[in-house]
Design a protein that fits this description.
homodimer, 581 residues, BirA Bifunctional Protein, domain 2, YbaK protein, Rossmann fold, nine-stranded mixed beta sheet, 15 helices, globular, aminoacyl-tRNA deacylase activity (chains A, B), proline-tRNA ligase activity (chains A, B), aminoacyl-trna synthetase (chains A, B)
Chain lengths: 581, 581
């Protein structure tokens, strides 16, 4: 490709609304162009990256036996009403009426449509297993789209859906995708982790996120450097502390803590470690009658150590809270504790509440909590001696660095990640409500066991940039670079030798199947180099008159601090040897 | 590919709403699956065809120097308001409101967005010419979607847009696309014609349609078998007859024609050729004031020969009618002619009307027209003698078979076609209203000269089928067949020899880059052959135990009446030799 025939449109300034590096750099490098909030044109330079991502995903999906199809972007509402998602989903589901006032949606995913295809086309167990996928435009009407392609409204997703006879088959399909995803992410050339994720109400352990490691990632990833344990924060288990509870050694004492309503302030005031304090959170659950009216409410007090954070997903699995909970209202809190939030605790409540202690809190001795009286805390609190044992002990907190790894093989570390893939066992979540069945060997209809498997095709390049950039611009891995090699001639318009050498190297590399671009725009060297460093092409060859006279051309990888001199006659072979993809 | 790992879902019955062969066959062959009116899933078998069409289009567009990008499917209304299309377009433009009640459209084409990109990114004449294209999902909310992919609502289109400095540049860009389109359509392996089309108000001759020839086509294509002249019906010129008008030889006579209000009926009653009659059509034009109120109307009488049809596009170019016209109302007709439609003519009108005669009518002698009196016609009418010469003489009719070719090289023939491509010179139609300018060499801003170039990616397979099918199913050209070769083993589960031979042929062809499928489903031969004849794979090899014993395998092209025996050892080479793509 010659640059003059391509569309290169780099910008000096990043857009004012660009908060993250990938948004700034993709815009400045002319890869994306904003059309509206969260809606971007994929410009020629950016589209080349997206097409490479698509090609890798497609190859590995096909290799894993998945079959590609393309479902409509605009989908009639009827199927979405069958599963109830047409009403249940919030405004992120873009709803449309056509000229006949019929309801449609712009697909955010395609579970309903693919399940409908399954129930019509996969009639016999003999046709199973089957995995159907598409790489197609999706739309989610995010309330606050931002970060460029990281959280856009229109995006391209690869979504795959597996159909199996039974749970064992669904597990095999899931594992085949787990393997394919590792092959895909290995090929991208990015540092990533496959982390266990929570599978919600469906249960089982069949949910994994594929996270590209980046300091700017929105997700916390928990892993064990000494083993292959990795999970997201929602899922990572905080083990119960080893050994029994320490014996009580201090008397229980009501202590004035005027104006100190947080654990941090109390610990500072009393000059004790934050780890000796206990944080209170008040929740409520409701019982309803047939009409959906609340007939009875129960108030819950959840306790975690002062330096720990509550984990809502884990809370949602505590028996009694696993059918939904809400935060208690201030009147409910006053009614049960006799005071407003800030000084709450399990001792001397006005009315009984159910107490759930985090595993860590359950083994604490001589701890500090609110006195249920404004401006007072209680120190030296001990289970059994000063209050009954908790109603329940559970893992309800986020893990922290240094916690024991759940696999018993070392200590946990935490880093940040960007979720670009997710594989998920669905079970019969869609097949049962849509009555999607096949005839099994015994002649009886059975609902499909399903799985779904997504990759954010347009998010991946953004994640790659968050991980790989410097102050000059993007640094693409070879596999998804818009061009692998850029040939930069200096003074091509003045020197026939430079022109000839540059064109020959370009043509030779192109003939060898290398994705090469020749910068024939006639820009000055400084501007030319700045453009290609911004765009992030990994391999660069500079061809100058002086170099040709000396018989030495300059090669530089985007990560290299300086150029390497290469004998002119060996440049082709040298560059070919540098390419990893 | 092994059939067992693919998704093959053929149907015995065509859907009830399928009116044309391509709709019937694509549905029965499991290539498309209806989700809603005019909305289809491209099933795996159909998607393979679409991907091949896309690949050919992409290769040739790139070869012609066009640059690919991807514009959003969901587009903010603002740009569409700049050109006025947001309001002007009818309900076929699918309009949406997002969660913030802002207006959006689902793209039917992308002139506005690409012009916006041009005005921002193409700032200097040095960046021109540039041709930007996308292959992307489009939506048109057709009032009556039908014919499967022929007139769907959601479809895939390749749309390209060229930007030039001036008209000469735009002509070069147009010609480059004209050449690329011929290369594309040549590669599809279909019979097609590039036909001159009307370019409407923009003028010039720079508009061509690419029509796939098919008896079921919606469009009439006019061509000259003795030359390369070809045009669509709207555009094809009917030349003025050679030689002068014949002399009058009959007296003008008022003749009773009770109840005979059509030329056909009158000719039959009077036992004269239909070519001696003249058909009347009454139009009106309105003059309006600043407020858009009609202040004055003019009634027009248009005359074509009884066996000819009026051509509205041509009528719209007659001076005086070229700013818009409408059909006259019945009261207007009665006011001017003294009678209702059915017996109208240019003689003895009650009020003066402007008379436009078709070129053919202008040279007729002794003709027949309505008497402006119910149940009466006039025979033996002659221009000059019985009525004044017409106010205007123009080409206002459709050509018919046998008319002289406008290039003077023979006679015209007519066949039916399906429009699958259209290239069009736009001029400054979008750049001027959107103020899309570049800085020219003289430092002054000038509006882009533009062109647009479309190919109906998902319509093309349907057109291919309309042209190539028989009672058993589809017959794909090699270039866009879902698979080029199908290997059909008979009794693969019973015979290890058959299995081995079938797998070897499949593997060898696959390794040679041939798109081959091995039917390992274990279907009986009759059902298996019927499936592949329906799907339309062009090359088939049957491998049977008997054949292997005899050392002869059976090859059959989808168009062949019978199979050809090929020595078993030569099958691979034989099949390779048969492939054209």
């Amino acid at each position: 490709m010659r640059a003059s025939q391509f569309l290169i449109s780099t910008l000096k300034e990043a857009p004012a609304d660009a908060e993250v590096a990938s948004h700034r750099l993709m815009t400045r490098a002319g890869m994306i162009k904003k059309l509206g909030a969260g809606i971007y044109t994929f410009m020629p330079m950016g589209l080349r990256v997206i097409r490479k991502v698509e090609a890798i995903v497609r190859e590995e999906m096909n290799r894993a036996g998945a079959v590609e199809l393309t479902m409509p972007v605009v989908q009639p509402a009827e199927l979405w009403q069958e599963t109830g998602r047409f009403d249940k989903m919030g405004p992120e589901l873009l709803r449309i009426k056509d000229r006949h006032e019929r309801d449609f949606v712009v697909q955010p995913t395609s579970e309903e449509v693919v399940t409908d295809i399954g129930r019509q086309e996969l009639r016999s167990y003999k046709q199973l297993p089957k995995n159907l996928y598409q790489i197609q435009t999706k739309f989610r009407d995010e309330r606050r789209p931002r970060f460029g392609l990281m959280r856009g409204r229109e995006f391209i997703m690869k979504d795959a859906y597996s159909f199996d006879r039974d749970h064992a088959g669904a597990q095999r399909s899931y594992q085949a995708m787990a393997k394919a995803y590792r092959a895909i992410f290995d090929r991208f050339g990015l540092r990533y982790r496959a982390v266990a994720a929570d599978s919600g109400a469906i249960g089982g352990d069949l949910s994994e996120e594929f996270q590209v490691i980046a300091a700017t990632g929105e997700d916390a990833i928990v892993y064990c450097p000494e083993s292959d344990y990795a999970a997201n924060m929602e899922k990572a288990e905080a083990l119960a502390p080893k050994g029994p509870r320490e014996a009580a050694s201090k008397p229980m004492t009501k202590t004035p803590t005027p104006g100190k309503s947080t654990c941090e302030d109390v610990a500072a005031l009393l000059n004790v470690p934050l780890q000796t304090t206990v944080k209170s959170l008040v929740l409520a659950t409701d019982e309803t009658n047939d009409k959906g009216e609340v007939v009875k409410s129960q108030v819950w007090l959840l306790l975690v150590r002062g330096d720990h954070d509550m984990n809502e997903i884990k809370v949602g699995k505590v028996p009694g809270l696993d059918n939904g909970f809400r935060f208690a209202t201030v009147p409910e809190i006053v009614e049960h504790f006799g005071t407003k939030p800030g000084y709450l605790g399990p001792i001397n409540t006005k009315k009984p509440v159910k107490v759930v202690a985090d595993r860590e809190v359950a083994v604490m001795a001589d701890w500090i909590c609110g006195a249920n009286e404004e401006d007072f805390h209680i120190t030296g609190v001990n289970w059994g001696r000063d209050l009954p044992e908790p109603d329940a002990v559970a893992d309800i907190r986020n893990v922290v660095e240094g916690d024991a790894s759940p696999d018993g093989k070392g200590k946990l570390a935490i880093e940040r990640g960007i979720e670009v893939g997710h594989i998920f066992y669905l079970g019969t979540k869609y097949s049962v409500p849509m009555n999607a069945t096949f005839l099994d060997e015994d002649g009886k209809p059975k609902p499909f066991e399903m799985g779904c498997y997504g990759i954010g095709i347009t998010r991946l390049p953004a994640a790659a940039i968050e991980q790989n950039h410097d102050e000059r611009g993007i640094i693409w891995p070879d596999a998804i670079a818009p061009f692998s090699v850029v040939v930069c001639p200096i003074g091509m318009d003045r020197s026939a030798d430079v022109k000839a050498a540059a064109e020959k190297l370009h043509d030779d590399l192109l003939a060898a199947g290398v994705d090469v671009i020749l910068d024939d725009r006639g820009e000055r060297p400084g501007a030319m180099f700045a453009d290609w460093e911004l765009i992030g092409v990994p391999h660069r060859v500079v061809i100058s008159d002086r170099g040709l006279k000396e018989g030495q051309l300059e090669y530089q990888h985007r990560r290299d601090a300086a150029a390497t001199k290469v004998p002119a006659g060996e440049v082709f072979t040298f560059v070919k040897g540098k390419l990893t993809a």
